[in-house]
Prior knowledge:
Elements: E1 9-15, H1 22-33, E2 39-45, H2 52-58, E3 62-67, E4 81-82, H3 84-89, E5 94-98, E6 101-105, H4 108-116, E7 126-130, H5 134-145, E8 149-154, E9 162-163, H6 169-174, E10 177-180, E11 206-209, H7 218-224, E12 229-231, H8 234-248
Parallel strand pairs: 1-2, 1-3, 4-6, 7-8, 7-10, 8-9, 10-11, 11-12
Antiparallel strand pairs: 3-5, 5-6
Helix pairs in contact: 4-5, 4-8
Amino acid sequence: MEKKEGEKNKFGLIGRNIDYSFSKSYFTKKFNILSLDGYSYENFHLDTILEFPELLRLNSGLKGLNITIPYKEKIIPFLDEIDEEAAKIGAVNTIHLTETGLKGFNTDAYGFKRSLFPHLKSNYTNALILGTGGASKAVAYVLDQLGIDVTYVSRNPKIGQLAYSDLDKELIESNKICINCTPLGTYPDVLAKPSIPYKYLGPDHLLYDLIYNPSKTAFLKEGEIRGATIINGSQMLELQAEKAWDIWNS
Length: 250
């Protein structure tokens, strides 16, 4: 691979199989609206995080990066510095490249909190988080800040976590918030959904899916037909993207 000299202000997304990405279209549109000549945004597919140093070497002009599945945790050892909040969360989704090195941030927490807050009710005291990847850590961090008790649900649960087979009527009814942090249901596999007992959902529940494409996943549809409040990941993505933009321009 040849070195790319390219634009003076280059940004991008690091992940695996990210052709579907929200970020590239969002920032490309933003650069056009703001008439920012010489600005570009590119998707960087990495088969392994060990390819990251070579990516930096080959792409001059990089000023900022977003990080997505499955590298939000694996990127941390490659950073020179990490923001205090990102360190507490244990996951990074934004990198600012400066003359002094690479600094990691987490803007997922900001986006999730801002998008969730208007929908909170007094009976939302317990939440199930489906999935244990990097995004789920930002979600758990925010819920903890809000005083909401969290239980992780995983296909391979660790101590203190639940398996999907553990979920029953009592657990669903006592956890009024259920957040999908897995990729299940992402386009084109739109019929997929986490394996939870949806029949126990009701109007007092809130279902939040970090997926934005499709806008109404199979997971959210199951909640909707039972009267639950449903939220997809589109607003969270926009909010975290704008927060990343602020960081890159600070």
